[in-house]
């Protein structure tokens, strides 16, 4: 089995547990996710299977989108609903205009200190495991990018005001830390009370599958949940390889212009391309190269050898 799966992770289980469940179901070893989603959060979790794991690096770096709820006036140890409450400030009064103003302050490049409950490694051990042992270590602030925070609903009359918003951000962004920082800037504190990932790169929540749906379809030999590997590669232009050059590409040999159907113009030479056989089968990803004498070619960097099928 080779391809990608858009899994709808339920709250209450880890991303690793999703991988283990599918590994047992499919009886495969090569399988993994493309970015941890907190156990308490639900939403899109792209899974790579078989040769699909070879394109995971192109998915990890893509922007992520979330629908998040912040509750103001309460701070927790983990910045989310799963942590011990540290402080309560009932009766907080916030004006919508002020909240919108502060949200705009977090658009663009910001620095975040990873929470102790994150899955980052520190000297070979996950931070959340150290946190369970009651340990706290220094963490270096990291740069992340917030592309958009769109306010959906604000309930300012509640004893603890709530804000529902859509957030689009770069990889490595901790939404719970973002919520805590927004609450701190507003002077009342806040925690992440609800989170669902609505998109991860090209993967959308509206076309995701639960583990139960995947299991049911797989047992009926219905592989409609399995996306092709090139679903993650649409940003790279596609070139068709002439039939006689297909074996050379599959063997990792350079692809000269004579082996490309239709030709490539002098000013139209993408740095990375998808290489396909005439029948539409994905062969490889190729990188642009140019020799000292000016002759250019594409060097296959990732050869997929899918034998004209994904399953």
Automatic annotation (TrEMBL):
The keyword DNA-binding does not apply. Its EC number is 5.4.99.25. Residues 23-175 form the Pseudouridine synthase II N-terminal domain. The keyword tRNA processing applies. Responsible for synthesis of pseudouridine from uracil-55 in the psi GC loop of transfer RNAs. Belongs to the pseudouridine synthase TruB family. Type 1 subfamily. This is tRNA pseudouridine synthase B. HAMAP family: TruB_bact. Keywords: Isomerase, tRNA processing. GO terms for biological process: mRNA pseudouridine synthesis; tRNA pseudouridine synthesis. Residues 176-233 form the tRNA pseudouridylate synthase B C-terminal domain. GO terms for molecular function: RNA binding; tRNA pseudouridine(55) synthase activity. It catalyses: uridine(55) in tRNA = pseudouridine(55) in tRNA. Residues 238-292 form the PUA domain.
């Amino acid at each position: 089995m080779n391809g990608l799966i858009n899994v709808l992770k339920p709250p209450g289980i880890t991303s690793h547990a999703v991988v283990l469940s599918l590994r047992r179901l499919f009886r495969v070893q090569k399988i993994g996710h493309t970015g941890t989603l907190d156990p308490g959060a639900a939403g899109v979790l792209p899974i790579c299977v078989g040769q699909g794991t070879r394109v995971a690096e192109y998915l990890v770096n893509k922007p992520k989108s979330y629908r998040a709820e912040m509750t103001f006036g309460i701070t927790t140890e983990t910045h989310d609903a799963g942590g011990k409450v540290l402080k309560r400030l009932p009766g907080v009064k916030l004006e919508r205009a002020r909240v919108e103003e502060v949200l705009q302050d977090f658009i663009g490049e910001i620095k975040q200190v990873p929470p102790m409950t994150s899955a980052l490694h520190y000297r070979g051990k996950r931070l959340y495991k150290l946190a369970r042992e009651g340990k706290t270590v220094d963490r270096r602030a990291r740069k992340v990018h917030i592309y958009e925070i769109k306010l959906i609903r604000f309930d300012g009359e509640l004893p603890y005001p709530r804000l529902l918003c859509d957030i689009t951000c770069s990889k490595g962004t901790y939404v719970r830390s973002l919520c805590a920082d927004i609450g701190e800037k507003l002077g009342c504190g806040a925690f992440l009370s609800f989170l669902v990932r609505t998109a991860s790169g090209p993967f959308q929540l509206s076309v995701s599958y639960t583990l139960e749906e995947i299991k049911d379809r797989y047992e009926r030999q219905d592989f409609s949940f399995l996306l092709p590997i090139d679903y993650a590669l649409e940003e790279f232009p596609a070139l068709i390889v002439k039939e006689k050059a297909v074996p050379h590409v599959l063997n990792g040999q350079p692809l000269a212009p004579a082996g490309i159907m239709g030709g490539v113009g002098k000013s139209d030479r993408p740095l990375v391309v998808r290489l396909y056989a005439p029948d539409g089968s994905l062969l490889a990803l190729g990188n642009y190269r140019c020799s000292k004498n000016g002759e250019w070619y594409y060097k296959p960097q990732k050869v997929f050898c899918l034998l004209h099928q994904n399953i």
